[in-house]
């Protein structure tokens, strides 16, 4: 550690250095040349015309097809959708014809999951409950995508006062978590007396949009100053057209991912509200209601609670897994190849 | 038989050198496991570094130069592995050394200076802490470690080191961060320093200062340096020995100056021919060369053709006369609609920037704003059919000028006259028509094309926006444009992510040409490209200028590129014009200190033969 | 640092006003008679109705009502429950229980979440990682109340390791199981976030540089990967305090924990809007303050944002 080097003083005042002549070594250095046949010269920057052209979505699809996570979740979602649309294909027993004779009976032929306290068929109710749960999830997601997407895109793209106002508004809604806000609203008589799929959707949209808005805003900001947007403006495209044609399509990936995961959480939120007695009315068959109704007998007859819970969990899980798979496939870092 | 033995030795009458090699890489092969199976990134690589020697590996991106060097300190990415050959450091085979042994070697035997100073310091720790832990990890933190940290930092040329050590990386400029990284790399006095593109992210003048300093330090300490660079000029200037890599293989190695002057392998020859720092004259289009009836070898590679240049350099200010002559017939062939404005003679001023000033309001603490003059009283006039280059380092305001010239940003003061019409006040239809005539090409080839649009839609977009032709005629036009930029017509069904950087840049040029503009504003249009590809694109731009009578406003930080493409140069520094003249004038007789500094900073400038 | 704290504090003020206004607006501006809203739609004695009108200043214009509501909120003058107890007293009794529960859940999330997340991130693609990832997905997918019932049934009733319900005093040991349930979903998010953050930072340039300096792997992980990876996790934990409060309604209902959530649960069941509004108002304050703390913690972890 004896060396002391003099610190550079070039920093403060610019000095015009003398031209450098390169270093010459006193040692003898062998000059090696590889045989040409080992490294044939390729033409500079030729287009590879062998591979078939692939858009980003096509490429994402190609990646997705190979992902077990995607295949499993997609299959499950298809099954859930079919069940929601055509429950009669899967259950022959009427879920509403309940007789107390069957109250809390165990499983038997034709009734693989037994009966509820009211003597309803658990399996049939599970199948018929799919539609309401799924409707809440799907329509809430569509709602938050429309409101949150538009708000977020405008805030991110135009910035300025629109952004400032929307950011504050988002913060305010964030201070009231989804479930808490939904509880306050749903327990109001105006909502409590008119409970239906649509009131639940409305309430969840009101408290759910800020998240999508935030994600959209971030994605739009990332793209709004991209060179291709500037280039489009220099071509004479209006700002709004540039937003619609170039910025939004490029911002979709993260929004789709979050929307898929949110869909799952909205289904859970509906079940939670129903569980608290302020979600869907008892007249609508839903997993949340069935779980809530099974709650008092959970110690004696856990199966009644378990089956709708399993159905709910699998549905939610498949949407979350889909989101995860999409995230991997649409990852912008993986795009540049 | 190894690749090395198969190769021929050019200078062979060598008396044996008795120095034992410090680092020896023999027949190294590196394989990456990817989704599409194993990929051989490096094959048969070999190189030898003697104590105290500086060896440079030169190659384009993807040539395997960094991978080879990183393998020497066991820093390959997790999916990479050494699949063949040996790495010998100071007589010890470290190819398969234990993790413990490699950790022992790192820092005090082999140091590293990484490429990007912005991302290589941990943002959450103070600079001093990051230097100190280096000393500590290598058992060098004595009682006076604090003083030692300051000492190491000041050795690397960081002024006021003791105070600076208490700051965080985000409080440092790029150049200062790189000095801190050099301090870290050399803190434990390694015998070998791996410098991976240590300055390519910095401004040229800073780059030169830092390289000079690194040079001096390693010479004084007797440290051997393995320098990795894409810049042949820089490599030749800083290293005794060059190793040229291409597609994962070493194609040529030997004494730096000899390789530069007498390259043997065709790839090296290509590199030497294309290296912009070594070009001594403006590119000439094929037409101009033919017109001058010089005996030009007809090479298949247009990039090469430009440099063989038997054709005499354009005498003095031919800049305006030659394109004028060449452009005439092309203009006649253009759409009649453009006729009246093309009646204008070449040589007249098409773009006139007068006393342009742009002030940005910077938001400070508590809502206070401070004015920042990004562009300060800049005047530039660009004659039709010529190339005007605006040169400057980061923060010089050159890109701001470009944005204002494109009417994408409103100037604070001053005026921009395009074809005699004030651009600032254009609105509606007039602005829309102006957009047809002035088009940009941007720096980042990955950002300038919409990844969701295929190439056809990308090039068609301007035609659609301006409602030109029908679907059929537009497709014909797209094909023509692709042909003009030497891309196969089949490209139009592809997407940007399937193309290389150079190809994307050519598509961006095609899009800019779609509306038959008069002026193209190139904002660092070739800076992100590899040397060979850069040469190819520059050449294309030059040919197009000749054929279409285009006027270029060429924004760049790279004087070497200016030399190749520009007729006139405006040098900017901190928002002001420092010097403006013809390219020949500026290069042969720079009047301002700053211009001289910039010229001197071109790596390899002095090695021109 | 003082300036930063002050500015962040000032920024929270509009959020506080906005959020309380939102709650107030929801309750008093939705269609229907506010008295009906306050009474849960049940008929009530005229005396009670008059008291409610006075408490909420229903004869005043909306803005005055809101102003007085805020004043009451800040001075903890929160009115009475239907059974005649002061709401502030009820909250005062329930609050410490929920605070204990939430802090336990948060600690549980932070400790186990970061621990599992870091290990999974460091061993990305290995068996441990996959197991943790799948487990976290399942936990996220299963609703809290189902998890609660299952754990109550298995751990509390069948195995008898813990009391299935919490007694009045809510001692710490009885709160372990509810805290676990409360924190479980967020734990899964913390694991996923930490894992993603760690695995991203592992390939950061500065980590490679740190390795090149000759640091041991342990030091690289602890000093260079961990601190940087914790930044997003801290943000999440702060925001999570809010959803813990939401989750507490369900968890406390299941385990019969005498906390804020249970209070809210019962108030909802009985349609006692005044109590609901008061409790939610208090929760908003807690959430806003928690966010301030997170901002400060964030600034401490990441020096870059201190002066921005």
UniProtKB/TrEMBL annotation, chain A:
The keyword Magnesium does not apply. The keyword ATP-binding does not apply. Keywords: Cell membrane, Membrane, Transmembrane, Transmembrane helix, Transport. Residues 130-323 form the ABC transmembrane type-1 domain. It comes from Arthrobacter livingstonensis. It is a multi-pass membrane protein. It is found in: Cell membrane. This is Peptide ABC transporter permease. Belongs to the binding-protein-dependent transport system permease family. GO terms for cellular component: plasma membrane. One of its GO terms (biological process) is transmembrane transport. The chain crosses the membrane at residues 69-90, 134-160, 172-191, 197-215, 255-280, 305-326.
Automatic annotation (TrEMBL), chain B:
The keyword NAD does not apply. One of its GO terms (biological process) is transmembrane transport. Residues 314-344 are annotated as: Disordered. Gene3D superfamilies: P-loop containing nucleotide triphosphate hydrolases. Keywords: ATP-binding, Nucleotide-binding, Transport. PROSITE patterns: ABC_TRANSPORTER_1, ABC_TRANSPORTER_2. Belongs to the ABC transporter superfamily. PANTHER family: D,D-DIPEPTIDE TRANSPORT ATP-BINDING PROTEIN DDPF-RELATED, TRANSPORT ATP-BINDING PROTEIN. NCBIfam families: PRK10419.1, PRK11308.1. This is ABC transporter ATP-binding protein. It comes from Arthrobacter livingstonensis.
TrEMBL record, chain C:
Keywords: Cell membrane, Membrane, Transmembrane, Transmembrane helix, Transport. The lineage of its organism: Bacteria, Bacillati, Actinomycetota, Actinomycetes, Micrococcales. One of its GO terms (cellular component) is plasma membrane. It is found in: Cell membrane. Gene3D superfamilies: MetI-like. One of its GO terms (biological process) is transmembrane transport. Pfam families: BPD_transp_1 (PF00528), BPD_transp_1_N (PF19300). The chain crosses the membrane at residues 12-30, 101-120, 132-155, 175-193, 220-239, 245-265, 277-301. PANTHER family: DIPEPTIDE TRANSPORT SYSTEM PERMEASE PROTEIN DPPB-RELATED, DIPEPTIDE-TRANSPORT INTEGRAL MEMBRANE PROTEIN ABC TRANSPORTER DPPB-RELATED. It is a multi-pass membrane protein. Residues 95-298 form the ABC transmembrane type-1 domain. The keyword DNA repair does not apply. This is ABC transporter permease.
């Amino acid at each position: 550690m004896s060396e002391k080097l003099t610190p550079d003083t070039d920093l403060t005042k610019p000095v015009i250095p003398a031209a450098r002549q390169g270093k010459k070594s006193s040692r003898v250095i062998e000059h090696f040349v590889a045989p040409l046949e080992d490294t044939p010269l390729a033409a500079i920057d030729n287009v590879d015309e062998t591979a078939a052209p692939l858009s980003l979505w096509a490429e994402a699809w190609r990646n997705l097809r190979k992902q077990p996570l995607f295949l499993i979740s997609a299959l499950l979602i298809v099954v859930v959708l079919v069940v929601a649309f055509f429950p009669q294909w899967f259950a022959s027993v009427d879920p509403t014809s309940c007789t107390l004779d069957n109250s809390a009976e165990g499983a038997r032929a034709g009734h693989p999951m037994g009966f509820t306290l009211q003597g309803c068929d658990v399996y049939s109710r599970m199948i018929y409950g799919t539609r309401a749960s799924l409707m809440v999830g799907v329509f809430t997601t569509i709602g938050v995508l429309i409101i949150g997407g538009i708000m977020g895109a405008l805030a991110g793209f135009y910035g300025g006062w629109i952004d400032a106002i929307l950011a504050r508004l988002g913060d305010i809604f964030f201070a009231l978590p989804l479930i808490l806000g939904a509880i306050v609203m749903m327990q109001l008589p105006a909502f409590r007396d008119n409970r239906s799929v649509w009131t639940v959707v409305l309430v969840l949209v009101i408290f759910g949009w800020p998240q999508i808005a935030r994600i959209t805003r971030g994605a739009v900001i990332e793209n709004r100053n991209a060179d291709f947007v500037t280039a489009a403006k220099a071509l004479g495209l209006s700002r709004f057209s540039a937003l619609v044609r170039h910025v939004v399509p490029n911002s979709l990936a993260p929004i789709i991912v979050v929307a898929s995961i949110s869909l799952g959480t909205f289904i859970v939120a509906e079940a939670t509200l129903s569980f608290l007695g302020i979600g869907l009315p008892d007249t609508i068959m839903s997993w949340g209601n069935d779980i809530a109704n099974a709650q008092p007998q959970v110690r004696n007859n856990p199966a009644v609670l378990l089956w709708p819970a399993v159905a709910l969990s699998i549905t939610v899980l498949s949407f979350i897994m889909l989101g995860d798979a999409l995230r991997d496939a649409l990852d912008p870092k993986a795009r540049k190849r | 038989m190894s690749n090395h033995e198969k190769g021929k030795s050019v200078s062979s009458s060598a008396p044996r050198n008795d120095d034992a090699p410090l680092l020896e890489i023999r027949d190294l092969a590196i394989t990456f496991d990817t989704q599409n199976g194993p990929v051989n990134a490096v094959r048969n690589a070999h190189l030898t570094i003697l104590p105290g020697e500086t060896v440079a590996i030169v190659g384009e991106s993807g040539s395997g130069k960094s991978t080879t060097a990183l393998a020497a300190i066991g820093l390959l990415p997790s999916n990479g592995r050494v699949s063949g050959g040996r790495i010998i450091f100071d007589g010890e085979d470290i190819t398969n050394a234990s993790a413990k042994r490699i950790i022992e070697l790192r820092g005090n035997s082999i140091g590293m200076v990484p490429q990007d100073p912005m991302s290589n310091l941990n943002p959450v720790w103070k600079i001093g802490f990051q230097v100190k832990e280096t000393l500590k990890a290598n058992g060098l933190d004595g009682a006076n470690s604090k003083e030692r940290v300051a000492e190491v930092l000041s050795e690397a040329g960081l002024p006021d080191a003791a105070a600076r050590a208490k700051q965080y990386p985000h409080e440092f400029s790029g150049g200062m961060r790189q000095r801190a990284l050099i301090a870290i790399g050399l803190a434990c006095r390694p015998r070998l320093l791996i410098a991976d593109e240590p300055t390519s992210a910095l401004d040229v003048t800073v780059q030169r200062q830092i390289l000079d300093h690194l040079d001096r330090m390693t010479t004084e300490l007797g440290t051997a340096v393995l320098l990795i660079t894409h810049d042949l000029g820089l490599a030749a200037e800083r290293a005794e020995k060059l190793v040229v890599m291409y597609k994962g293989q070493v194609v040529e190695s030997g004494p730096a100056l000899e390789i530069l002057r007498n390259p043997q392998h065709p790839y090296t020859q290509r590199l030497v021919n294309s290296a912009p720092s070594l070009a001594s004259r403006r590119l000439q289009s094929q037409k101009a060369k033919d017109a001058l009836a010089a005996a030009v070898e007809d090479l298949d590679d247009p990039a090469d053709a430009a440099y063989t240049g038997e054709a005499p350099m354009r005498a003095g200010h031919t800049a305006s006369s030659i394109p004028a002559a060449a452009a005439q017939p092309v203009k006649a062939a253009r759409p009649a609609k453009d006729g009246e404005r093309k009646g204008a003679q070449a040589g007249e001023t098409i773009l006139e920037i007068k006393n342009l000033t742009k002030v940005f309001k910077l938001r400070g603490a508590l809502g206070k704003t401070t004015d920042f003059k990004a562009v300060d009283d800049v005047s530039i006039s660009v004659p039709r059919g010529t190339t005007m280059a605006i040169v400057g380092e980061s923060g010089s305001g050159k890109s701001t000028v470009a944005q204002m010239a494109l009417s994408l940003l409103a100037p604070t003061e001053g005026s921009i006259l395009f074809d005699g019409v004030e651009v600032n006040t254009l609105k509606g239809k007039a602005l829309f028509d102006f957009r047809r005539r002035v088009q940009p090409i941007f720096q980042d080839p990955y950002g300038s094309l919409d990844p969701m649009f295929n190439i056809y839609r990308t090039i068609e977009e301007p035609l659609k926006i301006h409602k030109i032709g029908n679907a059929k005629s537009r497709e014909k036009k797209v094909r023509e444009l692709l042909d003009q930029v030497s891309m196969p017509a089949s490209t139009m069904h592809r997407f940007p992510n399937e193309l290389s950087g150079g190809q994307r840049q050519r598509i961006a040029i095609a899009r800019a040409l779609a509306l038959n503009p008069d002026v193209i504003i190139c904002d660092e249009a070739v800076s992100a490209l590899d040397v060979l590809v850069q040469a190819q694109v520059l050449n294309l731009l030059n040919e197009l200028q000749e054929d279409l009578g285009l006027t270029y406003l060429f924004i760049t930080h790279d004087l070497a590129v200016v030399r190749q493409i520009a007729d006139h140069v405006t040098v900017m520094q901190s928002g002001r014009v420092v010097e403006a003249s013809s390219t020949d004038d500026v290069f042969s007789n720079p009047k301002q200190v700053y211009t001289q500094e910039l010229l001197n900073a071109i790596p390899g400038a002095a090695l021109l033969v | 640092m003082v300036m930063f704290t002050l500015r962040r504090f000032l920024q929270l003020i509009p959020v506080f006003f906005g959020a309380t206004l939102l709650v107030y607006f929801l309750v008093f501006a939705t269609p229907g008679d506010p008295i009906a809203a306050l009474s849960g739609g049940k008929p009530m004695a005229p005396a009670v109705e008059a008291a409610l009108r006075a408490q909420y200043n229903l004869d005043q214009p909306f803005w005055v009502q809101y102003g007085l509501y805020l004043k009451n909120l800040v001075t903890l003058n929160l009115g009475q429950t239907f059974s005649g107890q002061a709401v502030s007293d009820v909250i005062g009794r329930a609050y410490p229980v929920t605070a204990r529960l939430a802090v336990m859940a948060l600690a549980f999330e932070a400790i186990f979440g970061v621990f599992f997340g870091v290990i999974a991130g460091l061993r990305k693609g290995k068996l441990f990682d996959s197991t943790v990832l799948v487990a976290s997905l399942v936990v996220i997918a299963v609703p809290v109340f189902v998890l609660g019932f299952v754990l109550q049934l298995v751990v509390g009733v069948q195995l008898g390791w813990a009391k299935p319900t919490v007694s009045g005093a809510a001692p710490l040991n009885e709160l372990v199981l509810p805290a676990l349930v409360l924190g479980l979903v967020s734990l899964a998010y913390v694991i996923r976030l930490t894992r993603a953050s760690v695995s991203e930072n592992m390939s950061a340039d500065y980590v490679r540089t740190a390795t090149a300096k000759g640091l041991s792997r342990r030091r690289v992980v602890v000093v260079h990967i961990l601190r940087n990876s914790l930044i997003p996790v801290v943000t999440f934990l702060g925001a999570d305090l809010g959803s813990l409060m939401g989750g507490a309604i369900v968890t406390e209902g299941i385990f019969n924990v005498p906390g804020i959530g249970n209070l809210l649960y019962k108030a909802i069941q009985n349609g006692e809007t005044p109590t609901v509004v008061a409790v939610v108002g208090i929760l908003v304050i807690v959430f806003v303050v928690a966010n301030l703390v997170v901002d400060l913690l964030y600034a401490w972890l990441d020096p870059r944002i201190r002066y921005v």
